[in-house]
Amino acid sequence: METLKKINLINGEFNSFEAREILMDMCNKNINFNKVQNFSSQIRFGEDDEQALNRIDQLKESVAHISEILEEAKSHNRKLKIKSFIEIEYED
Description:
Distance between the termini: 9 Å
Shape: flat
Largest sheet: 2 strands, antiparallel
Strand content: 15-25%
């Protein structure tokens, strides 16, 4: 599938506090989006949205890994270089 656009969302150096704010906010918004998707499925169809629930689990694991990295950076007083890209494609 052809990539329509690759967008650079995050690109910079951050201290552990700044990195936590950026990364956790992004993860939490994505978790909340999937919770709403699941709730919508429950209301409309009377069943869970398994894809949304799986994504929530994946995101929670990512949050745990990110937290470990941030704690280590904080304890060693190190900055973090973060790059984040998003690719947008048409779905067939």
